[in-house]
Amino acid sequence: MSFDIGILVIRVLFGAAIAAHGAQKLFGWFGGYGLKGAGGVFEQLGFRPGIAFAAAAALSECAGGILLTLGLFTPLGASAILAAMLVAIVSVHLKNGFFAMANGVELPFLYAAVALGVAFTGAGAYSVDALLGRTFLSEPLIVAGLLVLAIIGAAVTLGLRQQAQDQTSAAQH
To answer: Closest Cα to residue 160, out of 105, 63, 91?
Structure first.
């Protein structure tokens, strides 16, 4: 029982936070850039067309966060978040080292770690997945497959990136 409460707390708090993070890019809520502004940042990072890449990142974060919060299709939501964070780590933060104070990989790394952990633990008893009896989603092969697809998706996204004209303008992820 304490496991299920613990994973519920992690899912809800992390899921809501990452969904809000995506909503900043998508809608401009909570002081964010909105899709047009985020698209401009993505263009500066070499992702063209910027709005399309910003929308993909924002949807991965926002929808992934909502899925985690609800505990619905949990490994899918976690995989979407992982993919977005891997792209953010490589394209924005890696050159700055580890710590967040220098815009390093620390925060997206922690977001990715939580998403990875939730993918492997599953949603727990207090989730829509459990309510609907979707235990097959937590099968190790399905989780591993979704995580591999997330890594491949991140690699493809990074491969589509053009040489950034101005990498000094880094988006906060």
So the answer is: 91
Structure tokens that stand for 24 in this block: 């900043």
Torsion over CA: 19, 143, 140, 129 (sign)? positive
- pLDDT (tens place) for every residue of the chain, 173 residues total: 699 999 999 999 999 999 999 999 999 988 889 999 999 999 999 999 999 999 999 999 999 999 999 999 999 999 999 999 999 999 999 999 999 999 999 999 999 999 999 999 999 999 999 999 988 888 999 999 999 999 999 999 999 998 644 444 445 55
User: CA-CA distance, 82 to 64, in Å (whole number)?
Assistant: 9
Assign residue 40 a region (left: φ > 0; alpha: ψ between -120 and 50; beta: otherwise).
alpha
Tell me if the pTM is above 0.85: yes
Q: How many CA atoms lie within 13 A of 114 on its CB side?
A: 25
